[in-house]
Amino acid sequence: MSATTEALTRKLGELHEEVASLKARVVEAVRIFHGSSANASSSMSIDEAMQFAAKWCRQGEGPSEVQIRMRELEAVLTDTVAHLQPDTPHHDNQTQIQQSHEMLQLLHVLSQLDVLFQHFDAQVHANAFEVAAADVSAMDRLVRDSPSSPVMDMMRVQARMRQNQLRCLLDAEVDAVCVTSPNKLELFPPQNLWASLQAANRLAFHLDALAAAMFRHILHPLVADPTLVPQIHANTLTLLSKPPSTSSSSSSAPLVPATAPPSSLTAGSFAKVLQHVLSVFQFIHAHWTDQSLLGNVLWNTHLSTPLLALVVHNLPSSVSDLAAFKATVQPL
Description:
This protein is of the alpha+beta class. It is 67% helix and 6% strand. It has 2 domains: 1-174, no CATH class; 182-240 and 266-329, no CATH class. It has helices at 3-34, 46-56, 65-83, 91-125, 129-145, 150-177, 193-199, 203-224, 267-287, 293-313, 322-329; strands spanning 178-181, 184-187, 228-233, 236-241. A 4-stranded antiparallel β-sheet has the order 1-2-4-3. The N and C termini lie far apart (92 Å).
């Protein structure tokens, strides 16, 4: 082995030792801050971990002291490998090179995750859920692309905890902007909720849930009972029962009883049912102008089948009455 190769080999060994030492300190600090076990068996005290974290975690926009050193170590490693003779047998060197690369890569991932955790916590505190959702997506990519190890498993748990935290917060936001109860619907400004749900891949889930609740408490009763009339006041829609007149008692029976076929309505009464359904959609659109997908979900998933069945059931049996029926219903 030449003097140059021997010097490079020694340099690799020293670099490997420094990287291993740095990794051990980072992993121990991570275990203290993010682990679920007590710190009784740790070789680093909490105060020491906090002091080290101040050097490791990014301060402001620039890289931290440890991050700068990691870059320097990578540069030294790359330069040293480049100067090794390719035909020189150096199995031990190759092992150290591979291990050093893997350790530095792990440190980079841990550093990025720690930054993301801190940024996520700050965004959640500021109710910036769309940005927090982007942080969760970045966390998920990092942990998914990283090989399994005890420290990475710990970070996966931390990432999943934040994902669940965000979902719970978004669930509460959805509950706050849409309050449903039997025959009553209240809508409030969603602010940036739809974008946050989209970023968190939860928009479709919540639109399905909202549509189901609106259909169950508002639209299904309207289609089933022609005596119900929607009344709108500000952000509240309420279904009130209008007593049927004696002359139309037979035509105002429930449209969709549980055990018997519905009684047919007059064209005027049927048109009123359609008008009431339309008013519900107009109410929703007026308050949530930036969410057109909800109407599609309401129609395609819940309303189209029962409403089309109602249309078919109430078509006039006589061809001579079709023109009058069409004239009454078509304007809607």
